[in-house]
Write a structure and sequence with these properties.
Helices cover about 35% and strands about 20% of the residues. By secondary structure, the chain is an alpha+beta fold. Strands 1, 2, 3, 4, 5, 6, 7, 8 and 9 form a nine-stranded mixed β-sheet that branches. The longest helix is centred in the middle third of the chain and has 17 residues. Belongs to the BCP1 family. This is Protein BCCIP homolog.
Length: about 300
């Protein structure tokens, strides 16, 4: 039996400032042009528990995270929906008119703008999609992590007495960072409530897979040679979800790898503010569970 649907209103201002206005020669309409370029669009988002009708929307968000990794995303999505007493999806709030109440609820691939939840990957080792995820984490850390990081990740994954939660923090681009704070705060409250009911949501560690984009290292080396000097210039990094940079700062260990050969060009074609060619990466973080509340507080303080 599914848990009752929880709903929360989250109000955000989304700025449309993609187009810059060219300076004029003091004409009367200059101020109007500037104001129009910084127009604010108010959008109300609703955070609520996942439902069956969110299946395709959640699966699409997981697809943009895992790309071509051999994981059964349908099974992972069903698992997220089955534990709908923990976690939230982001949807745009809608006023329900009487005439809409009779309409049949349909799966809407674009109806879900984000998903924030956690999955116990220690408790569900016999579930094929979770076992495959654990194997993938070991494979990737063996290939890309330092020896010390790989050893720690391997030991944590193989120690069932210290449960691991996979944090899923996915949303579409341009959804403001501010929305992450109430979603994570709610997730912490729900995990505490679930734990008090003897559900397996008390963790020793979390794993978070982050999406980021990096500038081309080769171009930076070429710039250094052209300038004929030594400098400490490093690749530009753009985090898809900017709050995850704070998670990265608090991580015990991390490793990253390029997914340039797995991604669709449509997913990475938004970097108009930089001259660099940005390449997609994934960074995997291992975080002590006890630090999660302080990480959320740091995010809240920085965005305020």
């Amino acid at each position: 039996m599914s848990a009752p649907v929880k709903r929360r209103e989250i109000q955000e201002d989304v700025k449309d400032d993609d187009e810059e206005q060219e300076s004029s020669d003091g004409e009367d309409d200059e101020q109007e042009q500037v104001e129009e370029s910084g127009m604010e669009i108010q959008v109300d988002f609703e955070g609520r528990s996942p439902q069956d009708s969110d299946f395709f929307g959640i699966k699409t968000l997981l697809q943009q995270l895992f790309l071509k990794a051999q994981i059964d995303l349908s099974a992972l999505t069903e698992l997220i929906i089955s534990q709908n007493y923990v976690g939230s999806v982001i949807r745009q709030s809608e006023d329900c008119d009487d005439e809409d109440e009779d309409e049949e609820d349909t799966d809407d691939i674009y109806g879900v703008f984000g998903i924030t939840t956690v999955i116990n990957i220690s408790d569900k080792q016999n579930v094929p999609c979770i076992q495959r995820l654990r194997d993938l984490l070991l494979e990737l850390s063996s290939e890309h992590a330092t020896d010390a990081a790989y050893t720690l990740i391997k030991n944590v994954l193989q120690n069932d007495s210290q449960p691991i939660g996979l944090l899923i923090n996915e949303r579409f681009m341009n959804i403001p960072t501010q929305i992450s704070v109430p979603l994570f705060e709610n997730l912490i409250s729900e995990m505490k409530r679930a734990t008090s009911k003897k559900m397996p949501f008390e963790f020793s560690y979390y794993i978070l897979i982050c999406k980021l984009y990096k500038g081309d290292d080769k171009k930076i080396e070429k710039k250094k040679k052209n300038k004929n000097k030594n400098n400490s210039e490093s690749p530009t990094i753009i985090w898809s979800n900017s709050e995850e940079e704070i998670f990265a700062d608090k991580a015990l260990v991390s490793f990253e790898f390029s997914v340039e050969n797995e991604t669709d060009s449509a997913l990475s074609g938004l970097w108009t503010e930089t001259d660099e060619e940005m390449k997609p990466y994934r960074r995997v973080l291992l975080i002590e569970a006890s630090t999660l509340p302080s990480i959320i507080n740091t995010i809240k303080n920085q965005i305020s």
